[in-house]
Design brief:
Helix content is about 35%, strand content about 30%. It has helices at about 1-30, 35-90, 115-155, 155-190, 210-220, 285-290, 350-355, 370-380, 390-400; strands spanning about 200-205, 205-210, 220-225, 230-235, 240-245, 250-255, 260-265, 270-275, 280-285, 295, 305, 320-325, 330-335, 340-345, 410-415, 420, 430, 435-440, 440-445, 450-460, 470-480, 485-495, 495-505, 510-520, 530-540, 550-555, 560-565, 570-580, 590-600, 610, 620. Helix 1 (about 1-30) runs antiparallel to helix 2. It is elongated, with a radius of gyration of 52 Å. It comes from Hanseniaspora guilliermondii.
Length: about 625
Amino acid sequence: MMLKGRSLKSITLSNINHHALLLNNTCSKRFYAKHNDDDIKDYEKNMNEMINQVNEELMSERMDVNNKFLEQKLKAEEELKQKRLNTFNRYTTYSGGESDSKPEIGSTFKPERSKSYELKKKILNKSMNYKIWVLSGLVLIGIVGGNDIYNYFVHQEQFVEMGETIKDVQNKKIAKKQAKLEKKVSKMNQVLKLGDFGIISWQNNNFSVILSDFVKKQGITDVVEDLVDNKLFLINGKGDLYEYSGENKTVNRILKGLNLKELKLSNQKLYIKNKNNEIIVLPIKQEIFNDLTIKRSLLKPWSTYTSYHKKIKNAEGKVLQFKQFDVGESNFVGQTFDGAVYSATTLTRQQQINHNFNRGQFGLPEYPPTKLVEFAQIQKTDLKEYPSEDDADWEALNDNYDNKLLEEDLPYKNDLVTSTYFSKSNKVVNRNIIKLSTGKNHTYFIDSNSTILAYGDNSVGQIYLQKIGTMKGYPLVLSRLPNSVKCLDVFCVGDNTYFLVEDVISNTSNQLMMLSCGSGSMGELANGQFKINQADATKFGQKGLANIKDVIKIGGINDKRYGIFEMKNGEYKLCLWGNNNDGGLPGIMAGKRYNQVQEPNVLLNKDSKVLLTKNFGTLIY
C-alpha cells in the first residue's frame, strides 16, 4: 500500500504539471480567438481530446500500481507460508531417502517425534534427580529430628531433674541471701530496742549507726537531707538546729534557743516551725551561717539564743502562725489557726524569670471572689472551669497570671480553697480544711466532710484527673472516688498521691485501705503494676494491711517509698515498695523493683520516724 501511494503521488504530480501547461496554452489561444467561432469549436474539440487522453493515462497508471501491489502481496504470502513450514519441520522428519523430494504443503507425511521425545526425557531425568535430592534431604532431616525427639523423650526425666536441680540451687542461694538479710535485720532490731541509739542508716543492703553520741546526749526531733551538699540538718531535743556533714562526719550548731520542732526543705531553704507555730525561713548558705550571732536573753540571762528573724509574714508585715504546713519543689502551702489557707513560692524572682516555674502548684489564679458561690455550684459537677461572664476576660486574666511574678516567700491567701459551698441541705457553709499535703508540684486538701480538693501538675495523673499532661492552677473538687469509700487522709510524695479511705459500706468493721495514683513505672503506687501514668486511684496490693488502724506517715524520695502503719493490735509496721536495685530499703532483697507492699521485720515504736535519703540510705531514728 505504501508503494502504491508513492507511485500515485509521483504520477499525479507530473501529469498535473504537464496538463496544466497544456491548459495554459489552450487558454491563451482561446483568449486571442474568442471572437472567432471556428476557433471556439477547435478549442472544444482539443479540450475533449485532451481530457480523454488524461483519463486513459490515469487508468493505465492505476492498472500498473494494482499489478505491483498484487505481486508484493503474493510474495509476502509465499514468505509467510515458508516460515510456517520451517517452524513445523523443527519437530518432524519425513521418511524416505535423500533423493526423495519434499512433499508439497498439504500432502500426507509420516512424522517422527524422536527429537521432542529426547527433550522430554532430559527434562524428566532432571526432575527425577531433583526429587531424589529433595527426598534425601527430607530423610536426613527426619533422621536427625527423629533422633532429637527420641533423645528428648528418652532423656526427658533427666532434663526435668536438671531443671529442678537448677531451681533448687537458685532457691538455696536466695535462701542464703534471705538468711543473711534476716540476721542483719535482727542485729538492727537489737540496736533499735536500746532507745537513744543514734540514727540507723541502711545502705547497700546493710546498716550502720551514725550520730550515736550526739543523739544520746541531745536527742533528735526531726531530720531533712540537703541533696546538693551531702548534709543532714537536725533538730535536737532542745529545739536547736544542727548541720551534719556526711563527708567530714562533723556536727555544727546553726540555730540555738529558738525552740524549733518541725523541719522541711525547698529550693535550698529550710522552713522551720517553732513552738509559737511561726515559720522561720533559713537559706542554706555558709555566708549566712557565718553571720549568725548569739545573744543573751534579757529575761533569762543564763540562756543564749541565735539572733535570726526572717519569718513568713503577710503583705502587712505580720508574722503568721500556722497550724500545719508543707512544701514542694518550689511552693509553700500552710493553714493558719483561723482556718485560712496560704500559698507562696519558694523561688526567687530571678529563678521565676529563668525557668518555666508555673505548673499550677500555687493555686492562685486571679479570679473575682464575688463568684465563689457560683464557683462552688460548678465545682460539684466537676465539668467546667471557673465561671466567667466574659470568656475573653477570663482568658486575659489567666494569661496575666501565667506571666506574673510572685514575691518570694510572701503568702497569698487562697480563698478558693476555703470558699463557701452548698451543703446537702442547700445551705451555704464555709469549708473547713483538716488535712493538706504537697508533692513535687501538686497539692491536696481534705475538708471536714471528707471532700477532696486539689490543684497543680497533672502530668502523670497525680491530681486524679483523666486528662494526663495537664495542670490546674486553681483548687478543684474531686468527686471521682467511689461512693462506697470515705477519704480520711492524703499523702503527696513526688509525683504520687496516696489516699487513706474507709469502706463506708462495711463501716461496722472500720475497714481501712490505701489507694494511689500518679507515676508508677518503678512500682511507686504499690498496686501490682509497673505503669507510668495512672490517673485512676487503684488499691494497694496489701496482704498484711487488712487490719490498719491509722497511717502515721507515707514518704519517699525519687522512686523509693515507705509507709508507717498503726495496726489494730497496737503494733507499728514499716512497709516498703518501689525501686530497691541499690539495696537502700531495709529488710528486703536488693536488685529488684517492688510493685506491692513489702513488710520487713523491722521493729518500730510509736515515736519512730523514717526518712529516705539520696546519700545516707534509709534513716530510722
